[in-house]
Amino acid sequence: MTDRQYQQRFEALLREHQGIVLKVAGAYARDREERNDLAQEICTQLWRAFSSFDERLGRFSTWMYRIALNVAISQRRRVRSAQVYFEPLEAHHLDSIGGHAIDEPDERLAALYRFIGQLDPLNRALILLYLEDRSYAEIAYVLGISETNVATKISRVKQKLREQAAQMALSEET
After folding, report:
1. Domain positions in the chain
2. Which of 15, 27, 139, 165 sees the fewest Cβ atoms within 10 Å?
3. What is the DSSP letter of 119?
């Protein structure tokens, strides 16, 4: 394969799966400029690591998630060490991560996005992949943890979500 063919293959795969970059950047960056910077850094790292991609070992999208999430989590750690900032994931963020904003979002959906926005970077990545219907094996590969650990973490996050939903329901009753 020539250098040009190699580059064209990468560009085609990147175009096909660009939603992954946008979703990860949207979930880990707080504003448009930071999302664009993160998306660019993810693409740069994908290109640098492309020679290590072996389609016999798995799908490109799974490999891409692994690279993208590692870049996002690393960048988030660097930003956090410089400053502490938190913006929960809201319905309006859907536009920047490839979804469709709803004029009047369901309050339960809005609450779910707020909950996801409060999770630490690893659990946010875990839930992002879980909501994408990725298998436990794929999630484990992307995050570099065991399938058992994936199952345990998902169970814990679901339990926290149930507890928050119950608290929210109680507060609405009173």
Report:
1. 3-173
2. 15
3. S
- Say what the pTM is: 0.62
Read off the tokens for 172.
């609405």
Burial of 82 (0-12, 13-18, 19+ CB in 10 A): exposed
Instruction: Output 67-70 pairs: Cβ under 8 A, ≥24 positions apart.
Output: 67/42, 68/20, 68/21, 68/24, 68/42, 69/24, 69/125, 69/128, 69/142, 69/143, 70/45
For the cut 80, the answer to whether the pLDDT of residue 35 exceeds it is yes
Give Cα 2 to chain centroid, integer Å.
Answer: 33
Can you tell me the distance from the alpha carbon of 31 to that of 131, in angstroms, rounded to the nearest whole number?
23
**pLDDT above 50: residue 99:** no
Cα of first residue to Cα of last residue in the chain, in angstroms, is: 67
% of residues, the chain, pLDDT over 70: 83
Return the closest-CA partner of residue 107 out of 115, 117, 97, 119.
115
Angle at the Cα of 76 from the Cα atoms of 140 and 11, rounded to 5 degrees: 70
pLDDT in tens, 124-134: 889 888 988 88
Q: Are 90 and 112 in contact (CB under 8 A)?
A: no
pLDDT reported for residue 168: 76
Q: Treating both helix axes as pointing N-terminal to C-terminal, what angle do 60-82 and 32-49 enclose, rounded to 10 degrees?
A: 130
Instruction: List all residues 6 or more positions away from 31 whose beta carbon is below 8 Å from its beta carbon.
Output: none
